[in-house]
Amino acid sequence: MPSFARAHTNLALVKYWGKEDEALRLPSAPSLSVTLDAFYTDTRLSKADTNEFVLDGKKVAGPEADRVFSYLSRLFSLFSLPKEGLLVESRNFVPKSAGFASSASAFCALAAAFAEEFGLDLTRKELSIAARLGSGSASRSVYGGFAEWKEGGTGESFAFPLDENPSMGISVLFLSFGGGEKEISSTEGMRRSKFSPFFPVWRQECRKACGEAESAIKAGDFEKLGEVAEKNACQMHALALSCGFSYLSGLSLEALRLAQNLRKGSVPCYWSCDAGKNAALLCQKGDAGRVKQAVREAMGAGARLFEAGPGKGVEAWREV
Ligand code: DP6
After folding, report:
1. Which residue in 68, 107, 122, 124 is deepest, having the highest Cβ count within 10 Å?
2. Is the pLDDT of residue 175 over 70?
3. What is the DSSP code (8-state) at residue 169?
4. Quick check: 281 and 271 in contact, CB under 8 A?
5. What's the predicted TM-score (pTM) here?
């Protein structure tokens, strides 16, 4: 009988950017994120004679399918299970064509569907460890709301929930500037960034930022959390630039200026940006209308807007 899982993506407010061990995906520093309600992956997993990966209704071969099946083969070994053929059918409710990444929701849903299909009865900590092996950021998508993933010197590195039902009314507005796929994957960008002379400083800054973000979340202090997130995103992109590459475009930086100008006008709004040029603006729910209007006035049709709020943790079930 097939198993199903739904996992939401997350936006890192303190970024995971650098690994101590690439094969185990052990992060060099802690990270902290908010799981998003609007974007998710649904995965159906069933036993089959041969491996097959169907994404958004189309059979997929090549590197994307290879990554899925080498991950699943790793899960079989991790849980000492005999290998079997699997049919993986995933649907991404993530605007991928708008340049948004889905590896966090994709690998979290895959891990959860696998655990369900093989009756593994994992704790969420164990599920987070399994999801991490597919894509580091997937470890945090196990939980709803705010989650943190501590750095770990051993194989036991997992994310844990900080506040799964945030009372802080937070809105995340994603600005998509169009264009093709990014040239440098996160995995490759992290690899290069480790050669930066600033990498040790980056690690320290992430540790400090996580502590500050934790306190801000506990205190319900949106402005402090936003400040920490914007500073950390700027530092990640500065780190990349220090290694001679950048994900940012002129529009990404225009979005940063927009957030700063909104703050001058007393609208608390903060910028973030992952390994791509698209930007995210964080604001309080009640200010989302004003921020959207400001984006439209400043960027017009140059930016497509998507809105999300805090979302739920992963869910999985099995057909009986
Ligand atoms: C900038 O989780 O995609 O979004 O572990 O190599 O698959 P791999 O990396 P991935 O990297 C995410 C990078 C980021 C920051 C973050 O989500 O913390």
Report:
1. 107
2. yes
3. -
4. yes
5. 0.96
